[in-house]
User: Fold this.
Amino acid sequence: MIAQSPEPSAPDTVWMLVSTALVLLMTPALAFFYGGLVRAKNALNTMMMSVASLGIVGLVWALVGYSLAFGRGTGVIGGLEFLGLENVGLEVKGSIPHLLFMAYQATFAIITAALISGAIVERMRFGPYLAFIALWTVVVYTPAAHWVWGGGWLGSLGVLDYAGGTVVHVNAASAALAAALVLRPRRDYGRQALLPHNVPYVLLGAALLWFGWFGFNAGSALGATRTAALAFVNTFLAPAATMVVWMLIELARTGRATAVGVATGIVVGLVAVTPAAGFVSPLGAIAIGGIAAPLSYFTILWRSRTALDDSLDVVAAHGVGGATGALLTGVFARPEWGGSAGLIAGNARQVGVQLIGLLVVAAYSGLATALLIKLVNVVARVRSSQRDEAVGLDVTQHGEEAYTRGEGAVLVMPSISAPATRSTDESMRAPLEVPA
Assistant:
């Protein structure tokens, strides 16, 4: 007689259905956050770079990625038993249907790939970008997820990463840094102010990210449990602390607290608490959020004075924020809150283990990303032309504009033989200089 699988827990299943939807919302939220920070002529292209990940990475994850990340394999990579969702059905995994666990993990892979786009907006062609994120998901994200969460060697070493400080944020930030270096700065970088065109979009995106992040962190308990409640509260408190410290720094330095600063502070706090959310006390979460604020803030100031064109400061927000949270997890983690003992609880070794985890993932992600972009470039040119950058990638890559010029306006697509059109962006109203 065939044994029947146990029934999934109804409360846990409901919570994970909600959490999966919340995390899925984070990707369009990121589109608003990123889209508001760029110039008007690139708003749609920037938002599309996030939204497209829902389709490209979602399918790659279901067909290949999930098996390589969570299939039974070696300490380095998972096996192939879940390829094409084979053996992934309604049987129980933990206390929820296996298929739901796969979908929840898919939302993590989707937003991780989308985060990278923030460093390369306004200068990467859309088609090669799609190919890049598909390859990156398989080659970079799935091994990192397996190493930490899928039974791989970093998890066995004892690395603590509750919801993705290392697997998601350090991973994406290192990839973003490599991509920005390979693609080189934008045409106008260092020559004119590249200002956000829609700050309300930035605030809306940050607010929706915070909302979705409750599913990101509290959902990582994989059930309606006490740990989920702890992660939920910590996801509320840490970004609140970061936002307050960020505003105080701005007020002390300039006498003004900016909306972009508030939005950035919220995101940095969310990033920083992600690896720690289910392992530290609420006071520990507040401390992590407060400590992350000045580190990311002054990294952004430093980056703006360099030749590194990390367009939307992915490295400062997600790299520095994620690394800070990962290391401080090794400081503040306590057994009574669900984690292994950290430094404060008498286990200094945990800080070293955390450092090994983030350095390994960062090094692998950066190197592999640089190679992948160069590989894609062999097949199709990844960098947009100077003319395309001048006109804007909305028109040249999508044939659309975020903001029409009035009733009856006609889109004029640039060509080699025709003079360049004027940009819709206010900063580009002067006649364009088209290279020979």
In short: Residues 14 and 224 are 8 Å apart (CA to CA). Residues 407-436 have pLDDT under 50 and may be disordered. The domain at 10-379 is CATH 1.10.3430.10 (Ammonium transporter fold). The chain has 14 helices and two strands.
